Amino acid sequence: MHPILKKYFALIKRFMPEKPKGTTIGLDISSCECRFVELAKIDETFKIVNWAVEKIEKGNTKEALTKLTQRFSSPKATIYSSVFGKGTLIRYIDLPRMSQNDLNNSFALEADKYFPFSSDQIYSDCHILDPQGKGKQMSVLAAAATKEIIDNRIKLFKEAEMNVEFIGLNPIAIANVFNTIPEAKQETLVPIALLDMGENITSLTIISEGLPKFTRDIFMGSQDLLKRIANALGMGVPEVFEIIRNPGEMKGEILKACESALQSIIQEIKLSFDYFTTEKNNEIHSLLFTGEGALISGIDENLGKNLDIKVKKWDPLKIVGISEEIKSADLEKNSMKLAVALGLALYDYD
After folding, report:
1. Is the pLDDT assigned to residue 339 strictly greater than 60?
2. CATH number assigned to the domain with residue range 185-315, chosen from the 4 options 3.40.190.10, 2.30.130.10, 3.30.40.10, 3.30.420.40
3. Are the beta carbons of 84 and 201 closer than 8 angstroms?
4. What percent of the chain stands above pLDDT 70?
5. Tell me: the pLDDT tens digits for 124-160?
6. Can you give the residue ranges of every domain in the chain?
7. What CA–CA distance (Å, rounded) separates 290 from 173?
8. Statement: residue 17 has pLDDT above 60
9. 24-29, strands of its sheet edge to edge
10. How far apart are CA 255 and CA 104, in angstroms?
């Protein structure tokens, strides 16, 4: 692997470095915004000491990143980032039990079996999910991203003069919250589904005992819903965004406007649930709903009714401390969109 990729790229982090003395930054780059969470660990408590969301104007991601760097508390903070969507893949495979080293050697020769790309087109990695297991079979998480996606992201960071230590995948980053923070891990003693509805992609991850067991990307998101609502109300998307949290008497009209798009997403979720319960012979007990889509009032209720499952909006920042210097009202307006950034910022502590 090229030396620069050794520094920047590791889809799954295996070996934990010495705990940082400063802060860590999780940097999430979506299709519409750049977001970061800056985290410190004080005694046994994680605390957010800084955060920001910057709009990507006219597709200029570099400019948004440059603005974000000016808001970092510490220029020496360790930065972690991630990629998502088309060109990224996560597979869960059952294999005969072996050591991680033997798995790495085997996987290097057989990666083509698990991904619809040739090995020279991707960066891939694998990790044993149950290394302490005693059975003859073991559960393996295999992840890959096309070289084009990673190389372009590295180029972007260099142009923005950002020293990023790690590039992962969004679903694994969110799952890391449950693996690292005990209060969150308690929620996954039984299998739960985590639905992160971003602007253009909705990511579904099923987590059990703090570890991801199933991942699926659905290529529709909150922008698909917001555009339909905007058309129905004769407004622009920015105007609609201001009323979706507290729509009042307009709630029914808003939900009706985005019903068809939401049903398409729900059908894909049902298929995934059916596959998981059949394949793993295990029921999903609840669904945690986060991301930009969770800001639309009433979507959680619709999901619960159609999926026949308990649905709860999940604010990832409720399980960490917040610095007294941060304006909590501003953070609360954006907290549903910061799950990936928080999971990335936690990588030095898992």
Report:
1. yes
2. 3.30.420.40
3. yes
4. 93
5. 999 999 888 888 999 999 999 999 999 999 999 999 9
6. 1-181+320-350, 185-315
7. 14
8. no
9. 164-169, 78-83, 24-29, 33-42, 45-55, 321-322
10. 48
Q: pTM, whole model, 2 decimals?
A: 0.89
Q: Which amino acid is at 68?
A: L
Cα–Cα separations (whole angstroms), residue 333 to 53, 242, 295, 338, 345 = 11, 11, 9, 11, 20
Question: Quick count: other Cβ atoms within 10 Å of Cβ 2?
Answer: 10
Does the pLDDT at position 14 exceed 80? no
pLDDT, one tens digit per residue, over 64-117 is 999 998 888 877 788 999 999 999 999 999 999 999 999 999 888 888 888 988
- What is the residue type of 171? P
Both tokens of residue 338?
A: 């910061």
Spell out the alpha helix ranges (H) of the chain.
3-8, 61-69, 100-110, 147-159, 170-180, 182-185, 222-233, 237-243, 251-257, 259-280, 299-307, 328-334, 339-345
- Record the tokens describing residue 57, joined without a space: 């104007």
Per CATH, 1-181+320-350 and 185-315 having the same topology is answered yes
Phi, psi dihedrals of residue 198, rounded to the nearest 5°? -85, -170
Does the domain spanning 1-181+320-350 belong to CATH 3.30.420.380?
A: yes
Please give the Cα distance from 346 to 41 (Å, whole number). Answer: 10
